[in-house]
Specification:
Length: about 325
Amino acid sequence: MLKKILDAIKGIFSNLFGGSKKSETPSKPVKPSPIEETPQDASEITPDTVVIVANEMEEIVILPNTPDQDFDEDIFDNEDTPVEVVEPVVVPEPVPETPVVVTPSPGTSSHNARYLWCLDNGHGSLTSGKRSPKFDDGVTQFMEYEFNRDIVSRVAKQLDKKGVKYFNVVPEIEIDNFLQGRVDRANNKSSDLPKIYLSIHSNAAPARSSNDWAADSISGIETWFYHGSKKGQKLASIFQKHLLEKTGLKNRHLKSRPESQFYVLRKTKMVSVLTENGFYNNKSECEKLINPEFRQKVADAHVAAIMEIEETGI
């Protein structure tokens, strides 16, 4: 008791005349830096995100000598906009296999290759989420990594026959997002042809949980491009047109984000697009995405767009 009284008196004198020890000022809270890898694709954007929708039928005029990424990076590559993100699951970094560049054998086709297509199948088997709820049988489930790789494989088989050069950016399966690696592989790949980056995905809509299907009204195809890139918008319009024609899915048009754009679109040093081929947590649409015949239509649409661009350029 006596000690408490003495401490109280000591505190009073300290406040009146100042103590020898300086009071500690609480440190100012530091805003956490955004996760570099996010956002990855349309399934990760929040409802309050500003998205610019463009009509794929709009005529895009490309001036002579326009660079492949015709935008002011200081204006558009803005990482200060807050983005709601989910902390990624940390997994061991796999030993990457050597990416494969395929050059068609002589005599395979008379086509004179115009571009090197960097085919990015996005995500790996170790990526958290990116899968549908289970169907009524309790077993059947859509895995986006498997869908993306299947579409890229179907596209590659046709490009082999047509004499189009391509680069499989991520041949590995047991891998996570590998975002920086995907971008570095494409950027650092030497090529005597201009490069185009094509990232293939399937979409996801907001739902009560990962075990619940989203609303049936949220469905369709959309193609994303780097905001401000005329070449990117023209490229996206060609892919969107062919995807709609081949699949018959709802038209969600072309999309871009003024800020905090998708990692692979803002970090690649070449014209790039990202296709979102239906919603895997829309039950009726997911049934189509699992169907091999429908997947072939998706692949055929990508090939048709590639061949149009190979013929006419951008």
